[in-house]
Amino acid sequence: MVGGGLGAYIGGIHRYAARLDNQFELVAGAFDVDAARGHAFAADSFIEADRSYDSFQSMVEGERNRPDRIDAVAICTPNHTHFPIAKAFIEAGIEVICEKPMTTTIEDAIALHDLAKETGRFVGVTYTYSGYPMIHEARAMVSRGDLGKIRVVQVEYPLEWMATGIELQGNQQAAWRTDPKKNGRGGSIGDIGTHAYHLAGFVTGLKAEAIAADLATFVEGRALDDNAHVMIRYEGGARGLLWSSQVAIGQSNGLRLRVFGEKGSLVWHQESPNELVFTELFGAPKVIKRGRDDLSLETRARTRTPPGHPEGYIEAFSNLYQGFAESIRAKADGREPNATGANVPTSYDGLKGVAFVDAVVDSHEKGGGWLTPKFA
Nearest 5°: phi and psi at 363? Predict the structure, then answer.
């Protein structure tokens, strides 16, 4: 692991997720830009001293020629560091699991995706919400035509945690997220809007043909957007609307997806992730619950507990790690991955996310005009 040390929220989530299915063991890391803090964290995490590194560069050099070298690296650092870290490990022949967005620029995203293809290295991107079982059920229902032709896609991701200028009050997580040099061109749209965009495309299979965006910065002095509205024209005629906000008071983690077709609709809310609401034309809403035996193979492959026992965020993140492990093993064995490794987000998903942010910011800067993302 690179980054993710003491006080880093997402590092802990990655470690929980990696351990849950016993697919990974944490054996090495460069956990902090402060090497002493990083070494102390490694010792507390039972990492051998000779595999606790001062920097990602020393970790690459230390691991590349070991007979027991790491199989993969998890990158849990601020956005602007993703590209050089991922590039170095790929070039050392090591598989990569990277936080989103994959990079901060479209040029770096293209270069990283191309490098992964050229070297054959696996790059997984942690679009967490595609790990939820009922999201895979929604994807299966859309794919087999239960909703008919898709007409409208509504996705929103509102949060309240940055409703005031907490980045000026010592909150380091907010500080780098509001710094264009560290976060990239998009604020809320890059941090959480990319999750919403990926989720909508993952479930529906639709590709964005054009987008028109309006960004806003409500907290005075903030350098990046903290609210975004994006209209989307999908290939085939469907229309979409995406809202992301870091200033939506009362919203803890309000990611919600609604898909409307000619024959029916689906609604999924991240704060009630074990349920999917399906409504057929002229019919009453039906609540489909996780854990049923008649759900799709991909859904059941991501379900751990019996009906009535809720599963949530950690398990969804773990489903990604389980899928990454299966994808890495399948590649090494020269076979197709099984259901747990199917449809995991990879470098092309990361590239699409960066291209989306780029198009959104460009559209806003040009007065909200329609633009086509470079990759969709």
Answer: -60, -45
